[in-house]
Amino acid sequence: WLNDMVQNGWAMTGFFGGFYIFDPCEKGAYQYQIDFTDRLFSVSNEYREFMQEMGAEIVANWGFWTVLRKPAEEGTFELYSDVDSQIEHYTKIRKMFKIATIVDILCLSVELLAAAAGAHFGYVFALLISACVLALANATFKTNDIIEELKERKTGIASDKKGRRFSPLLLIGLFLNSLILMTGNSIPIYLKHSLQIIVIILMAAGVYTTMRCRRK
Hints:
A hairpin with a 2-residue loop joins strand 1 (10-16) and strand 2. Helix 4 (120-155) packs antiparallel against helix 5 (168-182). The chain has a three-stranded antiparallel β-sheet with strand order 3-5-4. Strands 1-2 form a two-stranded antiparallel sheet. 59% of the residues lie in helices and 15% in strands. The chain is an alpha+beta fold and 216 residues long. The longest helix has 36 residues, at 120-155. It is built from six helices and five strands. It has helices at residues 2-7, 45-54, 83-116, 120-155, 168-182, 189-215; strands at residues 10-16, 19-24, 30-36, 57-62, 65-71. The mean pLDDT is 85.
């Protein structure tokens, strides 16, 4: 996506909390790559020096992700050119997604306990965290599929891809339901119930789509 933006004359120059900053540039001026590093919100001096030797510029650090770019006129910009290094790279990413999923499940348990104790917002945050858990699970499944494809390319042996995914409808339904509950009594009760019926239908469609994909 960042490379597509460059082709349209917009170069990414910063990132913070899900918001990208772009500056106008000559079309196709840069090539971008995103790396997964070992440090949170920073990189080591050795990594920085290595990228400088490659002629690459560190544009932004967010979490374990590092956005890099290199002038397109200097040729193809690749971080992981062989299959083994690509497998190692995506295995680290999958591990991060798994850890984040486990942390979110623990947070979900805490919110459910709070809801059981009578805290109204426990249900709200439980729904929000549930949507996050499903999104992280999808990211884990997708990364696992990439790893299996790389292993297949390396060995020539076809792998059994399960194609597991949670439907986006289910995630959207959980998120919308939490927003409706957050409103409390600030909207008319008939409108609130009508919206909840729509959300339930949306979530049911998400469950159906998810189960159907798994059977395939």
